[in-house]
Design a protein that fits this description.
Layout lengths: L9 H24 L3 H22 L5 H25 L4 H23 L10 H28 L3 H21 L4 H24 L11 H29 L4
Helix pairs in contact: 1-2, 1-3, 1-7, 1-8, 2-3, 3-5, 4-5, 5-6, 5-7, 6-7, 7-8
Length: about 250
């Protein structure tokens, strides 16, 4: 099996942030505007996620559109998981944030204990890929809970939330470039892009009286999905061009 995860390039991080924003706005659109409610939305999107994961696992190499579709769906399901705990079960954001942090830490501990690596450059077996997607789901759930905790419970608001999480990501990036551990800095950045994307999605989609710009969830989701599709198509064609140029691939 070839490595099933793309390189963490600038395009990777742009698509990741856009995916997290779509996860926030898309989940809100289905639950509120379509009228499915949080529970039905979670069930429906979980079914789509399982089907897409089966497609992802069936491939022997990284296929851009399958991989990024899975990421978008994980983002939506992770958002719904946190929203269900908060809105339906009325669990405090402090508790859900701590619980998801512990779940993610446990996943990393078991993953490292079994494989002796957490690097995304080594996702070359089904077992490692399973650990990878479990970790990704918990990063989205944790990021959603932490983002809601910061912007709502702690009162930062959407604008300050975007700034605060953006600054943290810049700090992690700077740490990487001055010699920080690449695996640790990658996963820290991956976690932080979730609340950044969620805060950005809320800032763009929420009404002005709630501190947003008022674009609405439909417009925001369509614009970001269009950009994601364009970037994924670019990555796909770029990869095909590289393979044609290098017959050894």
């Amino acid at each position: 099996m070839l490595n099933k995860v793309p390189e963490a390039t600038a395009i990777f991080w742009v698509i990741k942030i856009l995916s997290t924003t779509v996860g926030e706005t898309g989940a809100d659109y289905l639950a509120v505007h379509v009228g499915l409610g949080a529970s039905l939305t979670a069930i429906f999107m979980t079914g789509l996620l399982i089907a897409t994961l089966l497609l992802q696992f069936s491939r022997r190499a990284y296929i851009p559109w399958i991989y990024w579709l899975t990421v978008v769906l994980v983002s939506i399901v992770g958002t719904q998981l946190t929203d269900l705990l908060t809105d339906k079960l009325e669990i405090s954001l402090y508790i859900s944030t701590a619980a998801f942090a512990c779940a993610l830490a446990a996943t990393f501990a078991v993953w490292y204990g079994a494989e002796r690596t957490l690097s995304i450059h080594s996702i070359v077996t089904t077992k490692r890929e399973l650990f990878y997607w479990i970790a990704i789901l918990f990063t989205f759930a944790l990021g959603t809970a932490a983002g809601d905790l910061a912007t709502e419970a702690l009162g930062l608001g959407f604008q300050l939330g975007v700034v605060a999480f953006g600054v943290l990501i810049v700090a992690v990036t700077a740490t990487y470039y001055i010699g920080g551990h690449p695996v640790l800095t990658f996963w820290l950045a991956y976690i932080l892009t979730r609340p950044l994307g969620a805060s950005l999605g809320d800032l763009l989609s929420q009404a002005r009286e709630y501190g947003g710009i008022g674009l609405g969830t439909i417009q925001t989701s369509i614009v970001f999905l269009t950009v994601i599709v364009g970037l994924v198509a670019w990555v796909t064609f770029e990869g095909e061009g590289a393979r044609r140029a290098d017959p050894a691939q």
